[in-house]
């Protein structure tokens, strides 16, 4: 493990380092994407997450999709060997694959199955995939070592790792907590699947972005810190 | 730190368990007191003094209702004052709205809201009482209290959970017996209580709390026609509107005044039509009494259920032609108890007072009677209470005092001031009253002016009645604080003991691990799965404080369990190496794939079980697989039942054949289990062909045969398996084998003993599991057969996962995962935290005559099928888990061996459960005034207690089996050592079977 992280830190030094400003810009864009999508849904289609969860989610992920994939593709690993278009392609492929994994995970954790909920589940898992797997696919492609480092071990090294890892974990953990009010008998419309899970996921995503920003700023101030941490 | 020896560990654990047992049984008895109730109904014998134990029996079963009515009249010497009763229940109406509070009239708004009722009160045509209701102030128990006069304990409800019908002696039953016709309009609780009693009824459900208009309209629309009918004697009206208004907007809701106006209109209509009109149309013979009661009050927020002044302040209003109290000040604070309504109505309508009544007749209610009749009524009430007292205080000695063979002077001398302890005081009060009554009777005959004596007698009777009533009702509602605190302390201490033991063991095993293996991984650091296992306990503890979470507990277990699986999955992913390198990685990959497939099996099986029963309380109407199957038809259920039966049998047989014990023995075991499995399938095919079970003689015999075969084969396997391990020759082999060492290696011997115990506990574990699954296949509802198979799959998958310990899970994490799986499965089988889902039908399979014990045992095993299955699987777990070889003790003594194998698997479930039990006890104490204390929290507490019992039983089976196996193995090793000198005695057969085994072991 120790040896491997050394390798990565070496690798990371080769690749483009993201400045704190760049990270701020990227996260702001991602956040604004979601906000704009909700505004559009409210303004032009007069729907919101509670009145029509499936279509609002559809709108959100369609607006968010180009922003996330195009932006994160800029941060691709090995930029010398891998062209920008290839990274975008990887992101686009990663989106449905990640959505499948997330949908299956959600169903295993108790998401309702049925035609009534099908559209909502699909759109929700696509949105969640945009928060978690699609950017990682755009950046890393199919490199198992990187995937394992980010998602199985949660040991981010370097600013790109933070920007991938923390928002993704935030979104997943937020969704997990968001599922808790669902079975309660408060008779509120937002207790429906997947409304409160989406709220939780969005909140977690925002918290994750803020945290990743903090880490990026912190590590750009003291660049040697990450080596100590990795070991 | 000195290592804890096995004996000390056992003693401490047993102390903890004993303390816990004492604690929770004392708590249950203190919190839910069981009061002895009298069974049966009171008949003519209630008009006779309890002292008069004549053998003459009234056989009134054959008498017609009219004869019975005149018999009652004759015996009681009190003619019924009224013929018809209109019993109007205004749900949730606080007495304050009508009668004011603390001697003050109600607020102007309230006075204006009910003008007609207020005018009745002001004119003295009605008498109103603040009728104190006993907690729980919820509708059904309060209705029971009003019609039976008894305050039921919670366990009374729990013990007859199969029916909600009121089986105790009650007013409506008495009315029915004297031939009354009854009509009910309103809340359907009445129909649940008295399913067959009503001539006509129109019930509305109280479920839709938001509706305040229709619920009352549904009652009122029948009123004009019903009031003009004269075929009924009792008309029950139950208006829910006021309660619903309170639930929505509280006491001061804007809807309250219009709702009260509506109620006033109803009262006006009834009073004008029926009560007043008796002498005009129908003549003297049809006198109607209108009784307006509320079942409970409400808090400022409109809630009820607890025991605060606002909630218990309910109304009792008697309106009848007989009530003309001239100087009646309407706002004096007249208070009574809610249960007092029962004896008053019983006396007024000439029926015996119900047996378990604790109420006292209301004095003003008897104004229409003569002095003689009034004293007689008090006497009847006293006799009834005396009988009830005698049932609770077996050596009550005052029953014989009431004989009247004394002179007058003697009698006067016996009257004394009463004080002292309970029994003596009650007796003394009663005898005073009885003596005065007799005196009054004799003077009355001699035409003395006796109003003074009369008043004295009435006072004496009320002295006795009120103190008896207070004592009797306190028996039910009072909670002995000291006892509860002591019980809680005991539970808390036992919890601490168990957790301390666990902590010590964990530290010890950590030390052993540190010295035994190289530090490839960080043992000191807490990994995420361990943190999550602790978090699960925390989540459960937190969720117990919320009634909604308790109602929907199945979601929590499933969610937490699948999250746990996902976390373990993530952990498995961590160790998948990078790149497809070398042949060395090949085996590793294979193992990872088998791990991943066991996760998938766990997750999928868990999800299917989650979808099988919707469960819970609030969302039961949502679609689920069981409803879909029941809708699809019986043949589908039957084929699924058969399929899961076959799958269970084949999975068990396959697992048996994995055992490396003596072949022919394994064959026998497989054969007996196959036979019993086929018998179970035959039983399913032949006798369970309808949704209800046929209870024919053949079915019963067959079920008994299945019980017998399963029992014999399981216990036979468990008893025989340690004797048949090839460990006997192990020592000899170790000494003769040149590859290991020249001298008999102690280490190898111990390894052999360990391997032997492993093999036999593997076999015993599968014997228990298969036996339990087949039993459940027979007992559970047909729809539950597939979940039973899924539980078996989950056990299989988790054992498959635990058997390679490359991921270095701590043992306690694995055991707690099994415990969580068991609880998730408990809810997956359709159980909930309400008593309604207990399957009573299955509890009579194979029982020829009714026996509470056997059907109770069967009911318990059906309800706790899943936790018990997972506890039994601990025997199997002990055989497969990988850490047993870590700290091999120096000598293969019984103690350390046992401690190594049994301690953690037994202490972890015990520890988790004791935490949950202790915390829930605290929650229950805190929630004792909560609205849902009787409907949600108390049933849940019973389930928690039953789970505790289940864990005791399961763990004692596990520990017993392990102790037996280890004992036999060490015995055999010692025997083997002595036999080693005489090699001739070792039979050829043993050697052959051993070599087979050794070959496999080597592979």
UniProtKB/TrEMBL annotation, chain A:
One GO term of the biological process aspect: GPI anchor biosynthetic process
Pathway per the UniProt entry: Glycolipid biosynthesis; glycosylphosphatidylinositol-anchor biosynthesis
Taxonomic superkingdom: Eukaryota
Pfam family, one: PIG-F
InterPro entries: GPI_biosynthesis_protein_Pig-F
Transmembrane stretches, start-end: 21-42, 54-75, 87-111, 117-140, 160-179, 199-219
Location in the cell: Endoplasmic reticulum membrane
GO CC entries: endoplasmic reticulum membrane
Primary location group: endoplasmic reticulum
The keyword Ribosomal protein appears for this protein: no
This protein's record includes keyword Transmembrane helix: yes
Annotated membrane topology: Multi-pass membrane protein
Key words of the record: Endoplasmic reticulum, GPI-anchor biosynthesis, Membrane, Transmembrane, Transmembrane helix
Annotated protein name in UniProt: Phosphatidylinositol-glycan biosynthesis class F protein
Annotated source species: Nepenthes gracilis
Taxonomy of the source species: Eukaryota, Viridiplantae, Streptophyta, Embryophyta, Tracheophyta
UniProtKB/TrEMBL annotation, chain B:
GO cellular component labels: endoplasmic reticulum membrane
Membrane topology value: Multi-pass membrane protein
GO BP terms: GPI anchor biosynthetic process
Pathway as given in its UniProt record: Glycolipid biosynthesis; glycosylphosphatidylinositol-anchor biosynthesis
Alphabetical UniProt keywords: Endoplasmic reticulum, Glycoprotein, GPI-anchor biosynthesis, Membrane, Transferase, Transmembrane, Transmembrane helix
CDD domains, A to Z: GPI_EPT_2
Domain GPI ethanolamine phosphate transferase 2 C-terminal as annotated: residue spans: 515-713, 773-964
Location in the cell: Endoplasmic reticulum membrane
InterPro entries, per the entry: Alkaline_phosphatase_core_sf, Phosphodiest/P_Trfase, PIG-G_N, PIGG/GPI7, PIGG/GPI7_C
Pfam families per record: Phosphodiest, PIGO_PIGG
Parts of the chain that traverse the membrane: 12-32, 484-505, 526-549, 555-573, 593-613, 633-653, 665-685, 705-724, 841-862, 869-888, 900-920, 941-965
UniProt family annotation: Belongs to the PIGG/PIGN/PIGO family. PIGG subfamily.
Annotated protein name in UniProt: GPI ethanolamine phosphate transferase 2 C-terminal domain-containing protein
């Amino acid at each position: 493990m120790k040896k491997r992280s050394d390798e990565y830190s070496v690798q990371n030094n080769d690749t483009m380092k993201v400045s704190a400003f760049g990270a701020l810009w990227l996260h702001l864009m991602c956040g604004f994407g979601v906000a704009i999508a909700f505004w559009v849904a409210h303004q032009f289609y007069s729907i919101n997450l509670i009145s029509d969860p499936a279509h609002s989610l559809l709108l959100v992920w369609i607006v968010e999709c180009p922003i996330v994939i195009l932006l994160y593709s800029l941060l691709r690993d090995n930029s010398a060997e891998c062209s920008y278009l290839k990274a975008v392609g990887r992101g686009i492929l990663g989106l449905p694959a990640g959505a499948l994994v997330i949908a299956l995970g959600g169903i295993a954790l108790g998401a309702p199955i049925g035609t009534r909920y099908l559209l909502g589940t699909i759109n929700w898992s696509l949105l969640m995939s945009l928060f978690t797997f699609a950017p990682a696919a755009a950046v890393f492609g199919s490199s198992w070592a990187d995937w394992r480092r980010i998602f199985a071990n949660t040991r981010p090294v370097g600013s790109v790792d933070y920007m991938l890892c923390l928002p993704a974990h935030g979104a997943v953990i937020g969704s997990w907590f968001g599922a808790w009010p669902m079975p309660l008998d408060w008779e509120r419309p937002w207790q429906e699947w997947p409304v409160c899970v989406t709220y939780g996921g969005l909140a977690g995503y925002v918290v994750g972005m803020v945290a990743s920003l903090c880490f990026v700023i912190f590590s750009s101030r003291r660049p040697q810190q990450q080596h100590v941490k990795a070991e | 730190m000195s290592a804890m020896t096995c004996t000390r560990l056992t003693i401490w654990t047993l102390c903890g368990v004993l303390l816990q047992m004492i604690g929770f049984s004392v708590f249950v008895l203190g919190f839910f007191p069981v009061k002895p109730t009298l069974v049966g109904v009171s008949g003519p014998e209630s008009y006779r003094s309890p002292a008069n134990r004549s053998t003459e029996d009234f056989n009134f079963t054959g008498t017609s209702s009219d004869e019975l009515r005149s018999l009652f009249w004759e015996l009681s010497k009190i003619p019924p004052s009224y013929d018809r009763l209109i019993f109007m229940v205004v749900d949730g109406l606080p007495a304050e709205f009508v009668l004011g509070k603390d001697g003050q009239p109600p607020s102007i708004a309230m006075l204006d809201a009910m003008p007609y009722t207020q005018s009745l009160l002001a004119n003295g045509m009605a008498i109103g009482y603040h009728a104190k209701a006993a907690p729980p102030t919820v509708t059904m128990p309060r209705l029971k209290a009003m019609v039976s006069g008894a305050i039921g304990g919670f366990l009374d409800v729990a013990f007859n959970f199969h029916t909600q019908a009121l089986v105790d002696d009650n007013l409506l039953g008495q009315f029915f017996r004297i031939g009354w016709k009854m009509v009910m309009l309103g809340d359907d609780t009445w129909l649940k209580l008295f399913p067959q009693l009503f001539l006509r009824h129109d019930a509305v459900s109280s479920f839709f709390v938001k509706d305040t208009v229709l619920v009352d309209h549904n009652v009122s629309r029948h009123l004009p026609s019903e009031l003009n009918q004269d075929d009924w004697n009792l008309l029950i009206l139950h208006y829910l509107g006021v309660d619903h208004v309170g639930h929505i907007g509280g006491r001061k809701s804007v809807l309250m005044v219009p709702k009260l106006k509506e109620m006033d209109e109803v009262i006006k209509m009834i009073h004008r039509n029926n009560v007043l009109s008796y002498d005009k149309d129908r003549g003297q013979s049809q006198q109607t009494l209108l009784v307006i009661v509320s079942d409970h009050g409400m808090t400022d927020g409109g809630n009820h259920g607890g025991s605060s002044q606002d909630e218990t302040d309910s109304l009792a209003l008697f309106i009848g032609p007989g009530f003309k109290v001239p100087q009646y000040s309407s706002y004096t604070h007249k208070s009574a108890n809610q249960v007092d309504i029962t004896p008053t109505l019983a006396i007024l309508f000439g029926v015996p007072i119900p047996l378990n009544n604790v109420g006292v007749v209301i004095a003003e209610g008897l104004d229409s009677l003569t002095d003689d009749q009034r004293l007689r009524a008090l006497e009847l009430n006293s006799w009834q209470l005396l009988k009830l007292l005698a049932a609770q205080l077996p050596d009550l000695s005052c029953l014989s005092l009431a004989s009247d063979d004394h002179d007058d002077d003697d009698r006067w001398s016996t009257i004394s001031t009463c004080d002292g302890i309970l029994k003596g005081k009650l007796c003394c009060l009663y005898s005073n009253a009885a003596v005065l009554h007799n005196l009054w009777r004799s003077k009355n005959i001699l035409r003395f002016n006796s109003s003074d004596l009369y008043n004295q007698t009435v006072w004496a009777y009320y002295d006795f009645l009120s103190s008896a009533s207070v004592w009797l009702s306190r028996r039910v509602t009072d909670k002995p604080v000291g006892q509860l605190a002591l019980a809680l302390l005991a539970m808390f201490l036992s919890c601490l003991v168990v957790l301390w033991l666990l902590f010590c063991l964990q530290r010890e095993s950590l030390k052993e691990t540190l010295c035994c293996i190289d530090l490839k991984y960080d043992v000191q650091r807490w990994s995420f799965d361990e943190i999550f296992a602790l978090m699960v306990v925390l989540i459960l503890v937190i969720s117990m404080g919320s009634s909604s979470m308790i109602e929907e507990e199945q979601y929590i277990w499933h969610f937490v369990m699948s999250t746990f699986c996902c976390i373990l999955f993530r952990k498995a992913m961590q160790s998948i190496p990078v790149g497809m390198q070398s042949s060395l990685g090949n085996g590793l990959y294979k193992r990872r794939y088998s791990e991943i497939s066991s996760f998938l099996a766990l997750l999928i099986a868990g999800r299917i079980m989650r979808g099988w029963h919707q469960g819970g309380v609030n969302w039961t109407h949502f679609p689920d697989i069981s409803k879909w199957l029941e809708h699809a038809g019986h043949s589908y259920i039957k084929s699924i039942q058969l399929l899961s039966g076959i799958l269970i049998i084949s999975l068990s047989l396959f697992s048996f054949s994995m055992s490396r014990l003596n072949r022919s023995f394994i064959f026998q075991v497989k054969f007996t289990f196959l036979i019993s499995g086929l018998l179970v399938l035959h039983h399913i095919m032949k006798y369970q062909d309808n949704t209800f079970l046929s209870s024919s003689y053949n079915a019963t015999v067959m079920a008994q045969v299945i019980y017998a075969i399963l029992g014999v084969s399981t216990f036979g396997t468990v008893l025989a398996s340690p004797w048949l391990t090839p460990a006997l020759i192990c020592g000899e082999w170790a000494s003769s084998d040149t590859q290991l060492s020249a001298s008999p290696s102690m280490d190898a011997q111990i390894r052999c003993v360990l391997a032997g115990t492993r093999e036999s506990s593997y076999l015993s574990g599968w014997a228990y599991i298969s036996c339990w699954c087949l039993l459940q296949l027979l007992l559970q509802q047909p729809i539950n057969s597939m979940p039973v198979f899924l539980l078996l799959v989950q056990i299989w998958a988790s054992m498959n996962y635990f058997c390679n310990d490359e991921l270095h899970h701590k043992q306690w994490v694995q055991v707690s995962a099994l415990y969580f799986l068991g609880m998730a499965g408990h809810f997956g089988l359709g159980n909930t935290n309400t008593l309604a889902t207990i399957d009573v039908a299955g509890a009579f399979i194979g029982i020829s005559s009714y026996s509470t014990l056997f059907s109770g045992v069967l009911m318990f095993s059906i309800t706790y099928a899943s936790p018990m299955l997972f506890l039994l699987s601990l025997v199997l777990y002990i055989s497969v888990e990988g850490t047993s070889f870590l700290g091999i003790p120096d000598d293969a003594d019984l103690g350390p061996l046992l401690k190594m194998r049994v301690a953690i698997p037994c202490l972890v479930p015990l520890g988790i459960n004791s935490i949950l039990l202790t915390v829930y006890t605290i929650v229950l104490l805190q929630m004792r005034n909560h609205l849902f204390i009787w409907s949600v929290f108390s049933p849940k507490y019973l389930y928690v207690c039953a789970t505790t019992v289940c864990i005791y039983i399961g763990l004692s089976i596990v520990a017993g089996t392990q102790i037996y196996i280890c004992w036999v193995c060490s015995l055999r090793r010692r025997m083997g050592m002595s036999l080693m000198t005489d090699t001739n005695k070792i039979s050829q057969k043993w050697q052959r079977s051993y070599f087979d085994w050794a070959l496999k072991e080597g592979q």
